[in-house]
């Protein structure tokens, strides 16, 4: 039986400004499966980021429940949410947000030290993860501005993984990268998922979405499409591409 890691019930998010209410997420009942590489798609402004932030405890829902790893995030206060996020969630953003005044290694350690005080153990783990994503020893003492975009985002992924998150959340992780850099980042995500890491990623790009094994399509605040794909493999690329293409055409 697949293990459900996140289950939302009637999840709603409404933004109010100038007396006008905008219902961005409407009564969403979503179950996400542990070990999946879930992709959230939808046009710009459809609420993808809002959904990602709600299910990861970055922002509170207006109404509804979010059961994540046996906690109802809707019931936690801000301090409890911060602790929950630190222990359970890793985040990767389009803008990457590495700290420019810290070395590559220190960026990763700063995140790790929030959860694990054993610095020696952390350093070992950080170095192992950096090697795993192709960031070799000669880059560990570099500063973020000395890295290419693809390298910086791979460091961003290591920073997100250093505390063994239950889920890695990624919001348009390749949105600012060229094609080769995107591929290097997506290869890392695919590899992590194949090693058991649960991932939830927002993208509006089909090639990026093809890395997932489940695609949720968001429109007007509801999930209007839910496509199962086999796990990513180069071999079945054409088949997956066609299946996703048909799905996206239906979504319009
Ligand atoms: P997407 O990621 O799919 O492009 P978002 O989730 O960022 O879309 O935004 C969905 C809608 O919610 C947009 O119309 C956006 O303007 C609105 N929105 C998002 N965040 C806020 C906020 N903090 N305050 C007010 N409106 C917001
Ligand atoms: Mg967005």
UniProtKB/TrEMBL annotation:
It holds the Pfam family ABC_tran. One of its GO terms (molecular function) is ATP binding. InterPro entries: AAA+_ATPase, ABC_transporter-like_ATP-bd, ABC_transporter-like_CS, MacB-like_ATP-bd, P-loop_NTPase. Gene3D superfamilies: P-loop containing nucleotide triphosphate hydrolases. Residues 6-245 form the ABC transporter domain. The keyword DNA repair does not apply. Keywords: ATP-binding, Nucleotide-binding, Transport. SUPFAM superfamilies: P-loop containing nucleoside triphosphate hydrolases (SSF52540). Belongs to the ABC transporter superfamily. This is ABC transporter ATP-binding protein. It comes from Lysinibacillus odysseyi 34hs-1 = NBRC 100172. The lineage of its organism: Bacteria, Bacillati, Bacillota, Bacilli, Bacillales.
